[in-house]
Specification:
Layout (H helix, E strand, L loop, with lengths): L6 H15 L19 E5 L4 E5 L1 H4 L11 E2 L5 E2 L7 H6 L6 E7 L4 E6 L6 E3 L3 H10 L11 E6 L11 E6 H14 L6 H19 L9
Antiparallel strand pairs: 1-2, 1-3, 4-9, 5-6, 5-8, 6-7, 8-9
Helix pairs in contact: 5-6
Length: 219
């Protein structure tokens, strides 16, 4: 029979065992199983809108490709300082909240409008005529890469005049990140202070990635 460990040593081993059980699982590329960094590439499957975690070597195989099952999600974020959207046009988009994202869907052959909710991404009916008007007023929307880039709109507080509306061209995975953040942190009817703090931090980080705040920069 093995000798019993001294109490202090036994306690130390128990702590190590507990730490081992709590280790965060290693995230791996879903194409080749290579270990991934916390910040890594994504692919999207347009047919299902499913996101795939990928290493750079696998992601680059789908860069700019057409007719493939997956598309590489770009990393660039653009803050649209001169974006034009009237309140009437926004109402015409029939989005029930003041935050939404829009992307061109290849499988559906049209622009899809989604808004985040505590239940996940919710699709809103989109008037084609209204979207065409908005696109004509903002030609940059014609550069959106189908399935992987989205127009992200944040008009929370705009109608009350407390903050200006914000418009971005972002990678589609950032939109789903925002959806997940809201779904995870929402509490009660109004969401609670935690979720609005998380949303504020999300858009602050988005502005930083877009270069907003750097001297003379609007990347």
């Amino acid at each position: 029979m093995a000798p019993a460990l001294p109490p202090l040593q036994d306690s130390a081993f128990a702590t190590l065992r507990q730490f081992a059980r709590k280790r965060v699982p290693i995230e791996r590329c879903e194409m080749c199983s290579r270990e991934l960094f916390p910040e890594h590439e994504h692919l999207v499957e347009p047919a299902s809108r499913k996101l795939i975690c990928a290493c750079e070597a696998c992601a680059i195989l789908f860069d700019g490709q057409s007719g493939t099952k997956y598309k590489r999600v770009p990393r660039r974020v653009q803050f649209l300082a001169d974006f034009h959207l009237t309140d009437a046009q926004w109402d015409g988009l029939m989005v029930p909240i003041e935050m939404a994202f829009f992307f061109k869907s290849t499988p559906h052959g049209k622009v899809i409008a989604l808004y985040p909710s505590p239940a996940g991404p919710t699709e809103s009916l989109l008037s084609l005529e209204t979207w065409v008007d908005i696109e004509q007023a903002n030609p940059i929307l014609k550069t959106m890469e189908a399935d992987v880039t989205a127009l992200l709109v944040n008009r929370v507080g705009h109608n009350r005049g407390s903050v200006a509306a914000e418009y971005y061209l972002v990678p589609i995975d950032d939109c789903y990140k925002l959806v997940g953040l809201i779904r995870t942190h929402w509490r009660g009817l109004s969401g609670g202070t935690e979720v609005w703090r998380e949303i504020g931090a999300f858009f602050t980080a988005l502005k930083r990635r877009a270069g907003v705040g750097r001297e003379g920069a609007h990347a």
